[in-house]
Amino acid sequence: EIVLTQSPGTLSLSPGERATLSCRASQSVTSSYLAWYQQKPGQAPRLLIHGASSRATGIPDRFSGSGSGTDFTLTISRLEPEDFAVYYCQQYANARTFGQGTKVEI
Amino acid sequence: EVQLLESGGGLVQPGGSLRLSCAASGFIFSNYVMTWVRQAPGKGLERVSTITTSGDTYFADSVKGRFTISRDNSKNTLYLQMNNLRADDTAVYFCAKDGADWYFESWGPGTLVTVSS
Q1: Cβ contact B21:B4 at 8 Å
Q2: In this complex, which of A43, A51, A88 lies closest to B45 when CB atoms are compared?
Q3: What's the gap in Å between the CA of A35 and the closest CA on chain B?
Q4: How far is A16 from chain B (nearest CA, A)?
Q5: Is B80 in contact with B90 (CB distance < 8 Å)?
Q6: What letter would DSSP give residue A83?
Q7: Are A29 and A51 in contact (CB under 8 A)?
Q8: Dihedral pair phi/psi, residue B16, rounded to 5°
Q9: How far is CA B98 from CA A96, B36, B101, in A?
């Protein structure tokens, strides 16, 4: 099983700032089969990124994904008030596992 | 527009059973892999069970032998039969539709299952 470790656990930023979230895998994620989700309190997760860098339908271009192998990054270029949430990475190269989440807070 | 709506959650005693349903619309249900994902209170996401278009199934070790997954393509509905429930099964259960690959493209709002005496 591929274990995903996200860092930091919590990111404290202000609107307008840049957010950089990390997801590290215990072994290589082949074909960049990595996705990112956003979850707000009381809501279901929402797909942001798949294939490590492809934005899902309707996702603003301030969200971008990068990386390959074992190291992946989600970047939010300029935080909007609605972006404060928990973010999860998920690999789907070998079974499907999630990271433990990064909370982006004001 | 893809819509997924879970139902069937509630309070159940340890050792009891529940059947969750997920009504799907806005896409050709029979063409997609479907999954149940759960989230314990204040915790992260855990894939519970998956069913493919051909009926092949996957279960997390934590539920193997206790949960079964099924689908009724004529009713566009996904099911999760949960037996011998334990306190650590307490969670919000989401149904999710796969994308072109094995990521979760769309999610329902979830249904809460509470296992407590």
Answers
A1: no
A2: A88
A3: 7
A4: 27
A5: no
A6: G
A7: no
A8: -80, -175
A9: 12, 11, 7
Instruction: Tell me the pLDDT band of B38, cut-offs 50, 70 and 90.
Output: very high
Q: Which of A63, A51, A54 is nearest to A87 (CA)?
A: A63
What residue type is assigned to position B25 of the chain? S
SS3 B31: helix
Cβ atoms within 10 Å, residue B76: 16
Q: Which residues of B6-38 are buried (b: 16+ CB within 10 A; e: fewer)?
A: bebbeebeeeeebebbbbbeebebeebbbbbbb
Tallying the residues shown for chain A, one arrives at 106
Given the structure tokens 């996401």, which residue do they identify?
B45
pLDDT in tens, A36-60: 999 999 999 999 999 999 999 999 9
Residue numbers in B near A96 (CB within 8 A)? 35, 47, 50, 102
Share of chain B above pLDDT 90, in %: 97
Separation between Cα atoms, residue A49 and residue A31, nearest integer Å: 14
CB A104 within 8 A of CB A11: yes
* CA A70 centroid distance within chain: 14
Residue A54: how many other CB atoms lie within 10 Å:
15
